[in-house]
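job 3f2a | input accepted
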Amino acid sequence: MGLDLDSAAAIGAANQEMDNENNSAWGGYENRTKYHFTTPEQRHSLWRDFVTSGSLSDFGSFMHAHQDSHSHEGYGPDVGHWWTEEPDLTQTDPAKADRMAETSYNWLDAAADRLPSRRTSVVVPWNQVSPFVQRFKRAQTDDEKRKILKGMRNFIEKARRDEQKRRQEEQKNKKKKKQTTSQ
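job 3f2a | predicted structure (183 res):
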């Protein structure tokens, strides 16, 4: 989304925090209904909280609820899926994970201009990021996932460098054209 790494890390940490001890689904019914087994109305409320505050933490909480709404589809807050972690594994239902990933990308895009850091560079389109996400969701080991993330990061960094070069070249050409027309 063109976010700086610190902002992206803060959003990710806030998202992960929802599964940590105090906020986890094990923390009681209120936690389950607020972040893990949410209604569309609850997710809308979390989105409004983010829009009002502009907080990276609020956005991470919203993203957690959004993402869990896909993986927890068909489960409710009363019992959740306490007997298995399968719904939380992206490789369990790749089609569901595909929908979650693309809609998460879209929410990130919608949020980017509201975040304090704003966009810092080129946004790589979903159709270029998607192949990495597809492989990541189907990866079976942490090592596989790390390699895929490294490849995606390298791809995005190259796209950013290429865009920066393109913009510099464009500026250079504008300057030359201006000099030519003023002579």
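job 3f2a | The longest helix spans residues 142-182.
job 3f2a | closed
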